[in-house]
Amino acid sequence: MTSNSFLRAARRTLTAGAAALLIGVATVPSLVTPAAADDGPASVADLAQGLLGAVVNISTSQRVKGTEGPGAVPMPQLPEGSPFQDFFDDFFKNRPGEQGNPSQKVQSLGSGFVVDAEQGIVVTNNHVIADADDIEVNFSDGVTLKATLVGTDTKTDVAVLKVDPKGHKLTAVKFGDSSKMRVGDWVMAIGNPFGLGGTVTVGIVSARNRDINSGPYDDFIQTDAAINRGNSGGPLFNSAGEVIGINTAIISPSGGSIGIGFSIPSQLALGVVDQLRQFGETRRGWLGVRIQPVTDDIAESLGMATAKGALVAGVIKGGPVDNGTILAGDVIIKFDGRDVNEMRDLPRVVAESTVGKAVDVVIVRKGVEQTVKVTLGRLEDGEKLASGENGNTDKDTGDEPPAVPTASVLGMTVGDLNDETRTKFGIAAEVSGVVITDVAKDSAAAERGIQAGEVITEIAQESVATPKDVMDRIAALKDQGRKNALLMLASKSGELRFVTIRMD
Protein backbone atom coordinates (compact mmCIF):
# COMPACT_ATOMS: atom_id res chain seq x y z
CA MET A 1 0.00 0.00 0.00
CA THR A 2 1.45 3.33 -0.97
CA SER A 3 1.81 6.34 1.28
CA ASN A 4 -0.74 8.32 -0.76
CA SER A 5 -3.38 5.57 -0.59
CA PHE A 6 -2.75 5.26 3.16
CA LEU A 7 -3.44 8.96 3.62
CA ARG A 8 -6.41 8.97 1.24
CA ALA A 9 -7.96 6.20 3.32
CA ALA A 10 -7.36 8.26 6.44
CA ARG A 11 -9.05 11.28 4.89
CA ARG A 12 -12.05 9.16 3.91
CA THR A 13 -12.31 7.92 7.49
CA LEU A 14 -12.23 11.44 8.93
CA THR A 15 -14.81 12.63 6.38
CA ALA A 16 -17.17 9.77 7.19
CA GLY A 17 -16.69 10.34 10.92
CA ALA A 18 -17.42 14.06 10.61
CA ALA A 19 -20.55 13.36 8.60
CA ALA A 20 -21.80 10.85 11.15
CA LEU A 21 -21.20 13.37 13.95
CA LEU A 22 -23.17 16.10 12.17
CA ILE A 23 -26.00 13.70 11.44
CA GLY A 24 -26.07 12.67 15.10
CA VAL A 25 -26.40 16.29 16.16
CA ALA A 26 -29.27 16.75 13.71
CA THR A 27 -30.87 13.56 15.12
CA VAL A 28 -31.66 12.18 11.66
CA PRO A 29 -30.23 8.65 11.89
CA SER A 30 -32.28 7.51 8.89
CA LEU A 31 -29.92 9.47 6.62
CA VAL A 32 -27.06 7.08 7.39
CA THR A 33 -27.01 4.49 4.63
CA PRO A 34 -25.46 1.04 5.11
CA ALA A 35 -22.84 1.87 2.49
CA ALA A 36 -21.79 5.04 4.34
CA ALA A 37 -21.74 3.25 7.68
CA ASP A 38 -19.41 0.55 6.34
CA ASP A 39 -17.05 2.99 4.63
CA GLY A 40 -13.94 2.54 6.79
CA PRO A 41 -10.28 2.99 5.88
CA ALA A 42 -8.85 0.94 3.05
CA SER A 43 -6.93 -2.12 4.19
CA VAL A 44 -3.41 -1.62 5.51
CA ALA A 45 -2.67 -5.32 5.07
CA ASP A 46 -0.06 -4.82 2.35
CA LEU A 47 1.89 -2.38 4.49
CA ALA A 48 1.69 -4.59 7.58
CA GLN A 49 2.57 -7.78 5.69
CA GLY A 50 5.95 -6.41 4.67
CA LEU A 51 6.79 -5.34 8.22
CA LEU A 52 5.54 -8.14 10.47
CA GLY A 53 8.53 -10.39 9.83
CA ALA A 54 10.95 -7.80 11.22
CA VAL A 55 9.11 -7.43 14.55
CA VAL A 56 10.17 -9.97 17.16
CA ASN A 57 9.29 -11.13 20.64
CA ILE A 58 11.95 -10.68 23.30
CA SER A 59 11.88 -13.31 26.03
CA THR A 60 14.15 -12.92 29.05
CA SER A 61 14.80 -14.94 32.18
CA GLN A 62 16.48 -14.03 35.42
CA ARG A 63 17.47 -15.97 38.51
CA VAL A 64 16.25 -14.28 41.68
CA LYS A 65 17.07 -15.33 45.20
CA GLY A 66 14.26 -16.76 47.27
CA THR A 67 12.80 -15.03 50.30
CA GLU A 68 13.91 -16.45 53.62
CA GLY A 69 13.68 -15.43 57.22
CA PRO A 70 10.89 -13.69 59.11
CA GLY A 71 8.98 -12.75 55.95
CA ALA A 72 8.64 -16.34 54.76
CA VAL A 73 5.22 -17.98 55.21
CA PRO A 74 5.53 -21.32 57.04
CA MET A 75 3.78 -24.42 55.76
CA PRO A 76 0.71 -25.14 57.88
CA GLN A 77 0.64 -28.30 60.01
CA LEU A 78 -1.87 -30.72 58.48
CA PRO A 79 -3.38 -33.85 59.99
CA GLU A 80 -1.71 -37.05 58.86
CA GLY A 81 -3.32 -38.35 55.68
CA SER A 82 -4.96 -35.04 54.88
CA PRO A 83 -6.27 -34.89 51.30
CA PHE A 84 -4.69 -31.40 51.02
CA GLN A 85 -1.16 -32.70 51.74
CA ASP A 86 -0.13 -32.93 48.06
CA PHE A 87 -1.54 -29.47 47.31
CA PHE A 88 0.37 -27.78 50.11
CA ASP A 89 3.54 -29.74 49.30
CA ASP A 90 3.43 -28.40 45.74
CA PHE A 91 2.70 -24.87 46.87
CA PHE A 92 5.16 -24.48 49.75
CA LYS A 93 8.03 -26.85 49.02
CA ASN A 94 8.50 -25.51 45.52
CA ARG A 95 8.48 -21.89 46.65
CA PRO A 96 11.73 -19.92 46.35
CA GLY A 97 13.51 -19.81 49.66
CA GLU A 98 12.63 -23.36 50.67
CA GLN A 99 15.44 -25.84 51.24
CA GLY A 100 16.69 -27.18 47.94
CA ASN A 101 15.07 -24.34 45.98
CA PRO A 102 17.06 -21.20 46.87
CA SER A 103 16.19 -19.27 43.70
CA GLN A 104 13.50 -18.94 41.10
CA LYS A 105 13.62 -18.30 37.38
CA VAL A 106 11.56 -15.22 36.54
CA GLN A 107 10.56 -14.58 32.94
CA SER A 108 9.36 -11.45 31.13
CA LEU A 109 8.28 -10.59 27.61
CA GLY A 110 8.62 -7.60 25.33
CA SER A 111 9.00 -6.70 21.67
CA GLY A 112 11.80 -5.58 19.37
CA PHE A 113 12.68 -5.23 15.71
CA VAL A 114 15.51 -6.19 13.34
CA VAL A 115 17.49 -3.31 11.84
CA ASP A 116 20.34 -5.30 10.25
CA ALA A 117 19.48 -8.70 8.77
CA GLU A 118 23.05 -9.66 7.86
CA GLN A 119 24.54 -8.86 11.26
CA GLY A 120 21.48 -9.99 13.24
CA ILE A 121 21.02 -6.66 15.06
CA VAL A 122 17.82 -6.23 17.07
CA VAL A 123 16.65 -3.05 18.85
CA THR A 124 14.41 -3.01 21.91
CA ASN A 125 13.89 -1.14 25.19
CA ASN A 126 16.46 -1.33 27.96
CA HIS A 127 13.74 -2.05 30.53
CA VAL A 128 12.69 -5.12 28.55
CA ILE A 129 16.05 -6.86 29.02
CA ALA A 130 17.32 -5.17 32.21
CA ASP A 131 19.06 -7.59 34.63
CA ALA A 132 18.31 -10.56 32.37
CA ASP A 133 20.51 -13.65 32.59
CA ASP A 134 19.24 -15.13 29.33
CA ILE A 135 17.70 -13.39 26.32
CA GLU A 136 15.89 -15.12 23.45
CA VAL A 137 14.49 -13.59 20.29
CA ASN A 138 11.36 -15.25 18.92
CA PHE A 139 10.50 -14.59 15.28
CA SER A 140 7.04 -14.56 13.73
CA ASP A 141 7.78 -17.81 11.81
CA GLY A 142 8.36 -19.69 15.07
CA VAL A 143 12.17 -19.65 15.06
CA THR A 144 13.87 -18.82 18.38
CA LEU A 145 17.47 -17.58 18.58
CA LYS A 146 19.67 -16.87 21.58
CA ALA A 147 20.69 -13.22 21.82
CA THR A 148 23.73 -11.48 23.26
CA LEU A 149 23.62 -7.97 24.63
CA VAL A 150 25.55 -5.43 22.54
CA GLY A 151 24.87 -2.39 24.72
CA THR A 152 22.24 -0.46 26.65
CA ASP A 153 21.45 3.15 27.43
CA THR A 154 19.34 3.78 30.53
CA LYS A 155 18.91 7.50 29.76
CA THR A 156 16.90 6.84 26.59
CA ASP A 157 15.74 3.29 27.45
CA VAL A 158 17.33 1.79 24.33
CA ALA A 159 19.07 -1.59 24.06
CA VAL A 160 20.78 -3.34 21.16
CA LEU A 161 20.93 -7.15 20.86
CA LYS A 162 22.66 -9.49 18.43
CA VAL A 163 21.60 -12.92 17.19
CA ASP A 164 23.40 -15.34 14.89
CA PRO A 165 21.40 -15.24 11.63
CA LYS A 166 23.14 -18.24 10.05
CA GLY A 167 20.61 -20.64 8.63
CA HIS A 168 17.75 -18.21 9.15
CA LYS A 169 16.88 -15.40 6.78
CA LEU A 170 15.95 -12.27 8.71
CA THR A 171 13.77 -9.38 7.62
CA ALA A 172 14.97 -5.90 8.57
CA VAL A 173 13.34 -2.48 8.68
CA LYS A 174 15.01 0.90 8.50
CA PHE A 175 14.74 4.07 10.52
CA GLY A 176 12.91 7.08 9.09
CA ASP A 177 13.07 10.76 10.04
CA SER A 178 10.84 11.43 13.04
CA SER A 179 11.42 15.19 12.73
CA LYS A 180 9.21 15.19 9.63
CA MET A 181 6.23 13.73 11.47
CA ARG A 182 3.38 16.14 12.14
CA VAL A 183 0.56 15.99 14.62
CA GLY A 184 -2.25 14.17 12.82
CA ASP A 185 0.02 11.98 10.65
CA TRP A 186 -1.02 8.33 10.57
CA VAL A 187 1.24 5.74 12.23
CA MET A 188 1.24 1.99 12.72
CA ALA A 189 2.45 0.21 15.87
CA ILE A 190 3.49 -3.44 15.64
CA GLY A 191 4.38 -5.60 18.61
CA ASN A 192 5.00 -9.26 19.31
CA PRO A 193 4.13 -9.41 22.99
CA PHE A 194 3.62 -13.11 23.69
CA GLY A 195 5.52 -14.76 20.88
CA LEU A 196 2.29 -15.70 19.13
CA GLY A 197 2.92 -13.42 16.15
CA GLY A 198 2.72 -9.73 15.44
CA THR A 199 -0.12 -7.48 16.55
CA VAL A 200 -0.93 -4.41 14.46
CA THR A 201 -2.63 -1.21 15.59
CA VAL A 202 -3.14 2.04 13.70
CA GLY A 203 -3.50 5.60 14.97
CA ILE A 204 -2.13 9.08 14.56
CA VAL A 205 0.60 11.23 16.06
CA SER A 206 -1.25 12.91 18.92
CA ALA A 207 1.59 15.20 20.00
CA ARG A 208 5.33 15.70 19.71
CA ASN A 209 8.14 16.71 22.06
CA ARG A 210 6.42 15.24 25.11
CA ASP A 211 8.32 15.40 28.41
CA ILE A 212 7.04 12.68 30.78
CA ASN A 213 9.91 13.06 33.29
CA SER A 214 11.36 9.64 32.57
CA GLY A 215 14.88 10.83 31.71
CA PRO A 216 17.09 13.79 30.82
CA TYR A 217 16.37 13.57 27.09
CA ASP A 218 12.58 13.21 27.06
CA ASP A 219 11.26 14.13 23.61
CA PHE A 220 8.57 11.53 23.06
CA ILE A 221 6.11 11.09 20.22
CA GLN A 222 2.63 10.65 21.68
CA THR A 223 0.25 8.41 19.75
CA ASP A 224 -3.22 6.97 20.14
CA ALA A 225 -2.23 3.76 18.33
CA ALA A 226 -2.85 1.03 20.92
CA ILE A 227 0.30 0.04 22.80
CA ASN A 228 -0.42 -2.76 25.28
CA ARG A 229 1.47 -4.98 27.68
CA GLY A 230 4.42 -6.65 25.99
CA ASN A 231 4.59 -4.11 23.17
CA SER A 232 7.47 -2.19 24.76
CA GLY A 233 10.45 -2.11 22.44
CA GLY A 234 8.34 -2.53 19.31
CA PRO A 235 8.47 -0.12 16.37
CA LEU A 236 6.19 2.76 15.44
CA PHE A 237 6.02 3.07 11.64
CA ASN A 238 5.12 5.93 9.36
CA SER A 239 2.96 5.33 6.29
CA ALA A 240 6.07 4.51 4.26
CA GLY A 241 6.98 1.59 6.53
CA GLU A 242 9.91 3.38 8.19
CA VAL A 243 10.54 3.24 11.94
CA ILE A 244 9.98 6.71 13.37
CA GLY A 245 9.70 5.64 17.00
CA ILE A 246 10.34 2.90 19.58
CA ASN A 247 7.26 2.24 21.69
CA THR A 248 8.24 2.53 25.32
CA ALA A 249 5.50 3.72 27.70
CA ILE A 250 1.79 4.28 28.19
CA ILE A 251 -0.38 6.20 30.61
CA SER A 252 -3.10 3.88 31.88
CA PRO A 253 -4.85 3.22 35.20
CA SER A 254 -5.54 -0.38 34.19
CA GLY A 255 -2.40 -1.42 32.30
CA GLY A 256 -4.22 -1.48 28.96
CA SER A 257 -4.19 1.12 26.23
CA ILE A 258 -6.41 4.17 26.70
CA GLY A 259 -4.98 5.95 23.67
CA ILE A 260 -2.02 7.62 25.40
CA GLY A 261 1.22 5.97 24.34
CA PHE A 262 4.75 7.27 23.95
CA SER A 263 7.54 6.39 21.53
CA ILE A 264 11.21 7.35 21.51
CA PRO A 265 11.68 9.36 18.30
CA SER A 266 14.00 7.84 15.72
CA GLN A 267 15.94 11.12 15.57
CA LEU A 268 17.08 10.45 19.13
CA ALA A 269 17.22 6.66 19.04
CA LEU A 270 19.25 6.29 15.84
CA GLY A 271 22.36 7.99 17.22
CA VAL A 272 22.17 5.89 20.39
CA VAL A 273 21.80 2.67 18.40
CA ASP A 274 24.79 3.56 16.21
CA GLN A 275 26.98 4.30 19.24
CA LEU A 276 25.96 1.10 21.03
CA ARG A 277 26.74 -0.92 17.91
CA GLN A 278 30.10 0.76 17.42
CA PHE A 279 31.34 1.14 21.01
CA GLY A 280 29.03 -0.97 23.17
CA GLU A 281 28.26 2.22 25.12
CA THR A 282 27.16 5.80 24.53
CA ARG A 283 29.61 8.63 23.92
CA ARG A 284 27.67 11.84 24.30
CA GLY A 285 28.88 15.40 23.97
CA TRP A 286 29.38 17.41 27.17
CA LEU A 287 29.45 21.16 27.71
CA GLY A 288 30.29 21.15 31.42
CA VAL A 289 27.72 23.62 32.74
CA ARG A 290 24.89 23.52 35.24
CA ILE A 291 21.74 25.13 33.90
CA GLN A 292 18.32 26.30 35.00
CA PRO A 293 15.23 27.68 33.22
CA VAL A 294 14.95 31.29 32.11
CA THR A 295 11.75 32.50 33.76
CA ASP A 296 9.95 35.71 32.91
CA ASP A 297 11.43 37.32 36.03
CA ILE A 298 14.96 36.27 35.12
CA ALA A 299 14.51 37.44 31.53
CA GLU A 300 13.34 40.84 32.77
CA SER A 301 16.29 41.04 35.16
CA LEU A 302 18.71 40.29 32.33
CA GLY A 303 17.08 42.77 29.97
CA MET A 304 15.88 40.06 27.60
CA ALA A 305 12.73 40.72 25.58
CA THR A 306 11.48 37.11 25.91
CA ALA A 307 12.14 34.25 28.30
CA LYS A 308 14.08 31.68 26.28
CA GLY A 309 17.25 29.65 26.40
CA ALA A 310 19.14 27.98 29.24
CA LEU A 311 20.64 30.04 32.06
CA VAL A 312 24.13 28.92 33.07
CA ALA A 313 24.02 28.56 36.86
CA GLY A 314 27.55 27.24 37.17
CA VAL A 315 30.58 25.95 35.29
CA ILE A 316 32.01 22.56 36.27
CA LYS A 317 35.65 22.76 37.26
CA GLY A 318 37.83 20.94 34.76
CA GLY A 319 35.08 20.88 32.13
CA PRO A 320 35.24 22.02 28.50
CA VAL A 321 34.30 25.66 29.29
CA ASP A 322 36.24 26.06 32.53
CA ASN A 323 38.57 28.36 30.56
CA GLY A 324 36.15 31.28 30.74
CA THR A 325 34.52 30.68 27.37
CA ILE A 326 31.11 30.47 29.06
CA LEU A 327 30.40 32.09 32.42
CA ALA A 328 27.77 31.70 35.11
CA GLY A 329 24.98 34.12 34.24
CA ASP A 330 25.25 33.58 30.48
CA VAL A 331 22.09 32.51 28.69
CA ILE A 332 22.61 29.95 25.92
CA ILE A 333 20.09 30.58 23.12
CA LYS A 334 21.64 28.61 20.23
CA PHE A 335 23.94 25.60 20.07
CA ASP A 336 25.66 24.46 16.87
CA GLY A 337 23.02 26.17 14.74
CA ARG A 338 20.07 24.75 16.68
CA ASP A 339 17.80 27.03 18.70
CA VAL A 340 17.59 26.50 22.45
CA ASN A 341 14.08 27.65 23.27
CA GLU A 342 13.79 25.93 26.65
CA MET A 343 16.29 24.70 29.20
CA ARG A 344 15.52 21.05 28.40
CA ASP A 345 16.50 21.58 24.75
CA LEU A 346 20.17 22.11 25.59
CA PRO A 347 21.09 18.74 27.20
CA ARG A 348 19.56 16.91 24.26
CA VAL A 349 21.29 18.82 21.48
CA VAL A 350 24.63 18.70 23.31
CA ALA A 351 24.32 14.95 23.95
CA GLU A 352 23.58 14.32 20.28
CA SER A 353 26.81 16.09 19.28
CA THR A 354 30.13 14.38 18.63
CA VAL A 355 32.73 14.26 21.39
CA GLY A 356 35.64 16.55 20.52
CA LYS A 357 33.62 18.58 18.04
CA ALA A 358 34.18 22.36 17.97
CA VAL A 359 30.80 24.11 17.89
CA ASP A 360 29.48 27.66 17.88
CA VAL A 361 27.41 28.61 20.92
CA VAL A 362 25.32 31.78 20.89
CA ILE A 363 24.98 33.34 24.36
CA VAL A 364 23.49 36.45 25.90
CA ARG A 365 25.97 37.99 28.35
CA LYS A 366 24.91 41.12 30.24
CA GLY A 367 22.28 41.84 27.62
CA VAL A 368 24.64 41.48 24.66
CA GLU A 369 24.34 38.57 22.21
CA GLN A 370 27.65 37.01 21.18
CA THR A 371 29.03 33.77 19.71
CA VAL A 372 31.74 31.66 21.34
CA LYS A 373 33.54 28.56 20.09
CA VAL A 374 33.50 25.48 22.35
CA THR A 375 35.14 22.06 21.99
CA LEU A 376 32.94 19.40 23.57
CA GLY A 377 34.03 16.84 26.11
CA ARG A 378 32.47 13.45 26.82
CA LEU A 379 29.43 13.33 29.09
CA GLU A 380 30.28 9.97 30.64
CA ASP A 381 33.66 11.36 31.76
CA GLY A 382 32.02 14.58 32.90
CA GLU A 383 29.52 12.77 35.14
CA LYS A 384 32.40 11.23 37.08
CA LEU A 385 34.08 14.61 37.38
CA ALA A 386 30.91 16.40 38.47
CA SER A 387 30.02 13.75 41.06
CA GLY A 388 33.30 14.31 42.87
CA GLU A 389 33.29 18.07 42.53
CA ASN A 390 31.26 19.03 45.58
CA GLY A 391 32.27 18.01 49.07
CA ASN A 392 30.37 18.44 52.28
CA THR A 393 32.20 21.09 54.25
CA ASP A 394 29.46 21.74 56.83
CA LYS A 395 30.79 22.44 60.30
CA ASP A 396 29.03 23.21 63.55
CA THR A 397 31.21 24.46 66.38
CA GLY A 398 28.31 25.38 68.62
CA ASP A 399 29.90 28.77 69.34
CA GLU A 400 28.34 32.11 68.44
CA PRO A 401 30.74 34.29 66.40
CA PRO A 402 31.26 37.92 67.29
CA ALA A 403 28.97 40.50 65.68
CA VAL A 404 29.75 41.53 62.10
CA PRO A 405 28.59 44.50 59.97
CA THR A 406 25.16 43.68 58.55
CA ALA A 407 22.44 45.19 56.37
CA SER A 408 18.77 44.35 55.80
CA VAL A 409 17.43 44.20 52.25
CA LEU A 410 14.55 42.39 50.51
CA GLY A 411 13.72 40.39 53.62
CA MET A 412 17.31 39.23 54.12
CA THR A 413 19.95 40.12 56.64
CA VAL A 414 23.36 40.03 54.98
CA GLY A 415 26.82 40.28 56.47
CA ASP A 416 30.53 40.07 55.70
CA LEU A 417 31.87 36.67 54.75
CA ASN A 418 34.83 36.15 57.06
CA ASP A 419 36.38 33.43 59.19
CA GLU A 420 33.65 33.68 61.79
CA THR A 421 30.72 33.42 59.39
CA ARG A 422 32.44 30.69 57.39
CA THR A 423 32.79 28.68 60.58
CA LYS A 424 29.24 29.34 61.74
CA PHE A 425 27.59 28.27 58.46
CA GLY A 426 30.25 25.79 57.27
CA ILE A 427 30.99 27.73 54.09
CA ALA A 428 33.81 26.40 51.91
CA ALA A 429 36.97 28.49 51.56
CA GLU A 430 36.59 28.94 47.80
CA VAL A 431 33.16 30.60 48.13
CA SER A 432 33.21 34.40 48.02
CA GLY A 433 30.56 37.10 48.32
CA VAL A 434 28.16 38.30 51.01
CA VAL A 435 26.65 35.79 53.43
CA ILE A 436 22.92 35.70 54.21
CA THR A 437 22.62 35.43 57.99
CA ASP A 438 18.84 35.52 58.31
CA VAL A 439 15.71 35.42 56.13
CA ALA A 440 12.48 37.01 57.34
CA LYS A 441 9.45 34.76 57.40
CA ASP A 442 6.89 35.43 54.64
CA SER A 443 9.35 37.74 52.83
CA ALA A 444 10.00 37.74 49.08
CA ALA A 445 13.33 36.02 49.76
CA ALA A 446 11.64 33.29 51.80
CA GLU A 447 9.15 32.69 48.98
CA ARG A 448 12.10 31.92 46.69
CA GLY A 449 13.52 29.34 49.07
CA ILE A 450 16.54 31.43 50.07
CA GLN A 451 18.08 30.26 53.36
CA ALA A 452 20.55 31.53 55.91
CA GLY A 453 24.06 30.31 55.08
CA GLU A 454 23.76 30.90 51.35
CA VAL A 455 26.11 33.44 49.83
CA ILE A 456 25.24 36.23 47.39
CA THR A 457 28.03 36.28 44.83
CA GLU A 458 26.43 38.51 42.17
CA ILE A 459 23.46 40.82 41.77
CA ALA A 460 22.35 41.56 38.20
CA GLN A 461 25.61 39.96 37.00
CA GLU A 462 27.78 42.30 39.06
CA SER A 463 29.98 40.87 41.82
CA VAL A 464 29.33 41.89 45.43
CA ALA A 465 31.78 41.60 48.32
CA THR A 466 30.25 43.62 51.17
CA PRO A 467 26.78 44.36 52.57
CA LYS A 468 27.15 47.90 51.20
CA ASP A 469 27.69 46.46 47.69
CA VAL A 470 24.39 44.62 48.05
CA MET A 471 22.53 47.76 49.12
CA ASP A 472 24.07 49.81 46.32
CA ARG A 473 23.23 47.27 43.62
CA ILE A 474 19.60 46.97 44.76
CA ALA A 475 19.27 50.77 44.87
CA ALA A 476 20.74 51.06 41.35
CA LEU A 477 18.30 48.49 39.99
CA LYS A 478 15.36 50.34 41.52
CA ASP A 479 16.59 53.57 39.96
CA GLN A 480 16.64 51.81 36.59
CA GLY A 481 12.99 50.89 37.03
CA ARG A 482 13.68 47.17 37.41
CA LYS A 483 10.96 45.13 39.15
CA ASN A 484 13.14 42.15 40.04
CA ALA A 485 16.68 41.61 41.26
CA LEU A 486 18.62 38.66 39.82
CA LEU A 487 20.84 37.08 42.48
CA MET A 488 23.50 34.46 41.98
CA LEU A 489 23.66 32.39 45.15
CA ALA A 490 26.31 29.94 46.24
CA SER A 491 25.57 27.04 48.56
CA LYS A 492 27.88 26.18 51.44
CA SER A 493 29.86 23.88 49.15
CA GLY A 494 29.96 26.39 46.28
CA GLU A 495 27.21 25.12 43.99
CA LEU A 496 25.58 28.06 42.21
CA ARG A 497 21.99 28.90 41.37
CA PHE A 498 20.07 31.97 40.22
CA VAL A 499 16.94 33.39 41.84
CA THR A 500 14.92 36.53 41.23
CA ILE A 501 13.40 38.58 44.07
CA ARG A 502 10.66 41.14 43.70
CA MET A 503 11.78 44.64 44.71
CA ASP A 504 8.35 46.31 44.84
From TrEMBL:
This is Probable periplasmic serine endoprotease DegP-like. Residues 383-404 are annotated as: Disordered. The lineage of its organism: Bacteria, Pseudomonadati, Pseudomonadota, Alphaproteobacteria, Hyphomicrobiales. It is found in: Periplasm. It holds the Pfam family PDZ_2. GO terms for molecular function: serine-type endopeptidase activity. The active site is at H127, D157, S232. GO terms for biological process: proteolysis. The keyword Repeat applies. Gene3D superfamilies: 2.30.42.10, 2.40.10.120.
